[in-house]
Specification:
Layout (H helix, E strand, L loop, with lengths): L1 E2 L10 H13 L9 H20 L7 E4 L2 H18 L4 E5 L4 H12 L3 E5 L9 H7 L4 E5 L13 H10 L3 E5 L18 E5 L10 E5 L14 H4 L7 H16 L1 H20 L4 E3 L10 E6 L4 H10 L2 E2 L15 H5 L4 H5 L1 E5 L6 H20 L2 H7 L8
Bound molecules: pyridoxal-5'-phosphate.
Length: 394
Amino acid sequence: MIYADNAATTKMSDAAIQTLTGLLKDTYGNPSSLYEFGQKAKEVLEQARRDVAESIGAQPNEIIFTSGGSEADNQAILSAAKMGALKGKKHIISTAFEHHAVLHTLNKLKNEGYEITLLDVHENGLVTPQQVKDAIREDTCLVTIMYANNEIGTIQPIREIGEICRSNNVTFHTDAVQAVGHIKVNVVDDNIDMLSASGHKFHGPKGVGFLYVKKGIKVFNLIEGGAQEKGRRAGTENVPGIAAMATALKESVDALDEYKAKLTPVRDKIIRGLSEIPHSALNGDAESRVPSNINFCFEGIEGESLLLLLDDKGIAASSGSACTSGSLDPSHVLLAIGRIHDVAHGSLRLSLGEDITDDEADYIIKSVKEVVEYLRGFSPVWRDLVAGKKEFIL
Ligand SMILES: *Cc1c(COP(=O)(O)O)cnc(C)c1O
């Protein structure tokens, strides 16, 4: 089996598992308790906070541990919105291709009377700093733009966007769930005020993540209760999970250069191989792209069938279609970069892990070619395209 769906979730690293299981057994104290069991857990928690902070260039007291990326996104956006409203500012800028954790939160705010500007994403899967500059108004309280897109892997010009926000005195949040642990991220250099990340996207456990909040920026808690996380996130901390996330993050960040050097040529080889399929196209910029991501559209086929047949061949991949909901809506990300419905339906995302081999890359190319050809063999859409009854788009 080849697991090529690392953007959905990753396998926990051995070191992270070791941290997790070790602590589950021995360090079960409540970090808020004053006796030694508790203080030992507290030490583990604070060491994890220092490690996580260091990996993104932050200070330990700027890290809030959460249940994952979705919670961090919700807390960042809802906090900035609430702060904005206190100053009479209720305009928020984002993009059309954010993760649903961001888009659905913004939608909720829209229903509460906020005005949301969703920037168009260019065909290459990028927004420009100029677009952000042009959209900022007197009453803008937040810009939230993802660092790397989870479907097409494109990396946004975060540093420049952050600079624009800072010079206009607007809070800048980035959903960096697909960036942290995959490319270099430094909250100071990148002018970031708030950043979301998630453990299970970089070989840590599921159900744990963090929100970075720059010193001086106020956040409200989503969950009321105890005074954990300096009153910003109530609930007894998941100490083993948090420490395992810190282990995985440190490992990933220490190996970033290696990761890039290993995956980039494999990624580009697969991109070259799949580009040989007639009437296909790479989605998203080829350069400004995380090392693991490959996303293609193939005209005349259904992404869902493609996935099932690849599964039969031992390849776990993903498609943009919202298969989880059972709906046949194509991916909002592919629509945002201008793919029409028919084309967006025939999409494939491969997100590689660092253990991928050259032989596996060859096998992926060969298998996708076979499956696309096979599916086109009995696709009515493909028949119409070939017969000239419909025009090819790709
Ligand atoms: C996975 C993901 C999330 C959600 O993170 P969870 O920890 O699963 O809640 C948010 N944003 C992006 C870009 C993601 O890829």
